[in-house]
């Protein structure tokens, strides 16, 4: 899975170059087909460089159009990924769960490729426990997400961690449904 | 200008009157002393709430007194008391009010032993007329001390956080919940207020810098100092009995760990060295120990470590987890929040016997702290979906709920005796 994600990111980088859009972002694995074809398109002008001018121009136009389309598609995929910035935890647990590893890996890889990007990882806890214990728990959750981001390619200088403990609940109910939403860490981009 | 001042003061008075709490008391002490508090002569002249009713309310809230209606009798001097008329009453409080020049009021009061027919306390208390509640609390303190042998805590103050939607206020109020004074209002969370031993300053946690940082604020001047602002979380400040040091929790080296620092932020020293959460330090009255919450054993439990650091002894073993320890003023026991079966209780544990006693029926009972006389425990709980203040006597017999009219009350802490 990691390989797929990496190749997608590389492909995206190429798209970024071709379309001259510095704000490209990571896409999800589902994006594999479109981004791979885009990568081909981006390299097309170089392959055809030795042939006559007109076809080159035509092919370049086609490539550019394709690249633009792909980049739009990639942008959608990026938007999808950027929507997926929350990871969740069981009660009184601070370890990153298997279900969230791909999300974190994708953000980590993005940070690895975009050296100017910065994130703030915000840890939260449900209201069971004391407010201070929950502040500590939220911090540990944020710290563990930070470690996972670094393992996936991010630099430590790109990641700031903060805990809101139980102070900023997303859901205000006093039930498991709300608590599950509040046992969470959010990856917030402060620079892209 | 003067008029404006007067108007402003009027507004403040109304506000604090409106901030009044609905108080509900349940239970009674093992022995309730029948006492009668007679309306003081001229007390209607100072306005506001009746002075004698503030004294009555203070006494009745302890659960140690049973108020007996004077039934029309209105003595103001010992000579006017006909003891034969007071059968069944053990003590009588009488007095009179006199307005002095310069906006001051003198209250003369006497506590009489109705059985032995003698005067137990006779004293004059003077204060600014608008501080009639403070005068009444002082009188109640003197009555309480004479009748029970322990100093009263009616003149002490409490601090807590009031949360209304996303607005947070750090509030100091009289121990009966009146006289609210807002020290800080933010659109970011405020947590963990902690009193300095002399009651002149509060340390607390604020998120105004985007993360938890620790501030110290003077009550008199309102001046604030940023004490700890390391990356990550800075929290759980608590004053050492010497008034010169604070214990606090930092995550700058990874997980939450205990540190001790001078109150100016210098001499920062790490006390615990773990990969687990160590938090909520509380100093023993002699300053030699810290109780704290840690999940080093798996679930959060209460531990004790010497302030020099070293081995930490586990103190609590019952329930699924335990939080927020605080020493009793005599250092012989500690109070904490006990979590079991999805319910939070307030519990107290004796150091010598290691016995835990649950003080409350259970609910969402958190953040207990002792009154400075050790007789009452203040804590946060919930009633009808709202965070409220509550107290329980340290023997668990008398319970009191104080419902604020606005917002949720969180993180209460009882202040020291006023100097």
Features:
heterodimer, A: 192 residues, alpha+beta, 4-stranded mixed sheet, 6 helices, 55% helix, disordered N terminus, B: 419 residues, mainly beta, 5-stranded antiparallel sheet, 5-stranded mixed sheet, 3 helices, 30 strands
Characterise the protein shown here.
- The complex is a heterodimer of chains A (192) and B (419).
- With 192 residues, chain A is an alpha+beta fold.
- Chain A has six helices and four strands, in the order αααβαβαβαβ.
- In chain A, strands 1-4-2-3 form a four-stranded mixed sheet.
- In chain A, strand 2 (118-124), helix 5 and strand 3 (159-165) form a beta-alpha-beta unit.
- Chain A is elongated.
- The two termini of chain A are 24 Å apart.
- In chain A, 45% of the residues are buried.
- With 419 residues, chain B is mainly beta.
- Chain B contains three helices and 30 strands.
- In chain B, the strands form seven sheets. A five-stranded antiparallel sheet of chain B has the order 1-29-28-27-26, with no helix packed on it.
- In chain B, helix 2 (51-61) crosses helix 3 (132-148).
- The radius of gyration of chain B is 23 Å and the shape is globular.
- The model of chain B is unreliable at 1-19 (pLDDT under 50).
